[in-house]
Specification:
The protein is of the alpha+beta class and 455 residues long. The protein has 11 helices and 21 strands. Helix 3 packs across helix 4. The termini are far apart.
């Protein structure tokens, strides 16, 4: 896209003293390593709850490797206080994911010979020695790096740094045992120019071991800024391939969208063959990749947009008020309690002033030269990535309407195969071979007889 814009909010830079992992999920920043460890940046999940200029951002730590080797660096607009940082429950990200995930729905054809029979809907379940403090302070000051604050939250030791120039910050990281990927200095410059601070979190091993955790928990931060954005450019420094970012945006207004790239709805509401039920993950990945390529690999995909009070169909239950608060929704307090309720009626479980938008961005350095800029809107239109399975009626059909129904099935199954080929780019003949319905239709002579008997 275009040149750098003004940056604010959060950039996530994942740091590692040493790590060897065949696969790691990271944030929107870059991994750095000591020595020559091969590190990969493949995917990230971020939840953003925003009302006005107030924002709570939750970063999922789906990190694989030794926890002693993990640290994150996050540019922030102000010096955060301890009260502005907390630990979140990883299950909250899982709940947001499950609720907003693309889904299959199954319909079952009714008996075509029965009068006014309704279709049935069934939901598919959706898963080294340290220098002395005086020497350290003198060294930091010579580099233009200042430790503004220091505190511990849960299993994380946190520093708030300020830096006068990107070379000093880069040198500070190197002198503290990190090898910075090529290009980091230049990409850090815009954030330094905006006088952003740097939130640095490392794992406190004593606290981690004491609590008996099996994995790192998400970090959650709150800030106030008129700019609504999420940096991604540093995450491309040592990426060997395109990276996937899922952003869950919670708002009291309506849909959120990306303003500096196009926001496009993922293909939806297509009937697909029944075997897709057992290959849904493979299907969706292929469909997403084909759509991503068709859109020239530089759009944000809308996968879900809905009021959190309900869903239709539901791939998981909506989050309850307590879960929403854990996800950062801070505008629920007192809303229900102020609503008068008639005697004998229970207060509703949830009011409907939380709208969730799920955006999926697959990004590379050449296609996404700018960080993501968002805006929330008043658009309450609902949308979901939804793919339909229609089971044919398996009973005997003896009426004329039933005979017409049976004759229509082959055309329907062929259309479903064509839909799947169009969405995924799979070969139509391979799809047909996997459709038992196309292999077990009535013999040609019986179809001819049925066609000749009463229309």
């Amino acid at each position: 896209m275009r040149s750098f814009r003004i940056f604010s909010a959060f950039l996530i830079v994942c740091l590692s003293c040493f790590i060897f992992v065949p696969k790691a999920w990271a944030f929107c920043g870059f991994y750095v390593a000591k020595a020559d460890a091969k590190l990969y940046n493949q995917a990230s999940q971020v939840a953003i709850a925003r009302n006005g200029s107030r924002t709570i951002l939750t970063m999922a730590n789906d990190y694989q490797g030794e926890v002693k080797d993990f640290a994150i660096v996050v540019p922030v607009p102000v010096v955060l206080q301890k009260e502005q940082v907390k630990i979140s429950d990883s299950k909250i990200i899982e709940r947001l994911d499950a609720f907003s995930a693309p889904r299959l729905v199954e319909y079952f054809d009714s008996d075509p010979c029965a009068s006014d029979a309704d279709l049935q809907l069934r939901q598919m379940p959706q898963s080294a020695a340290m220098p002395s403090p005086t020497a350290l302070r003198a060294r930091n000051e010579s580099l233009g790096v200042t430790v503004e604050a220091k505190f511990t939250v849960g299993e994380y030791d946190i520093l708030i740094l300020s830096a006068k120039e990107s070379g000093g910050l880069e040198t500070w990281l190197v002198q503290n045992g990190y090898r910075i990927p090529r290009g980091a200095k230049e990409l850090l410059k815009p954030y330094i120019r905006q006088k952003l601070k740097f939130f640095v979190a490392k794992v406190n091993l004593d606290e981690y071991d004491k609590a008996g955790f099996q994995s790192l928990r998400p970090l959650q931060m709150t800030y106030d800024s008129p700019r609504f954005m999420l940096p991604i450019r540093l995450g491309m420094i040592n990426a060997q391939s395109a990276q996937d970012l899922i952003v869950y945006i919670l708002s009291p207004k309506g849909q959120a969208e990306v303003t500096n790239y196009r926001t496009v709805k993922i293909p939806s509401d297509a009937e697909v063959p029944l075997f897709v039920k057992d290959e849904f993950s493979t299907f969706y990945k292929a469909m997403f990749t084909k759509t991503y390529d068709r859109e020239d690999q530089k759009v944000a995909f809308l996968e879900y947009a809905w009021n959190m009070s309900n869903c239709d169909p539901c791939s998981a239950d909506p989050l309850n008020p307590e879960e929403l608060k854990q996800a950062g929704v801070f505008w629920l307090d007192g809303a229900d309690e102020k609503m008068p309720m008639p005697r004998g009626l229970r207060r509703p479980v949830f009011n409907g002033n939380v709208f969730i938008t799920r955006l999926h961005v697959r990004y590379t350095r050449d296609k996404f030269p700018e960080d993501l800029m968002f805006q929330d809107t008043n658009n309450q239109e609902t949308f979901q990535g939804r793919y339909i399975l229609r089971h044919p009626f398996r009973g005997e059909t003896t009426c004329s309407e039933g005979r017409r129904y049976q004759r229509s099935l082959r055309q329907r199954f062929e259309q479903q195969a064509q839909n799947l080929a169009r969405l995924t780019g799979w070969k139509i003949d391979d799809i047909r071979k996997k459709q038992p319905q196309l292999q077990t239709q009535l013999p040609w002579w019986k179809e001819m007889w049925l066609s000749a008997i009463g229309q």
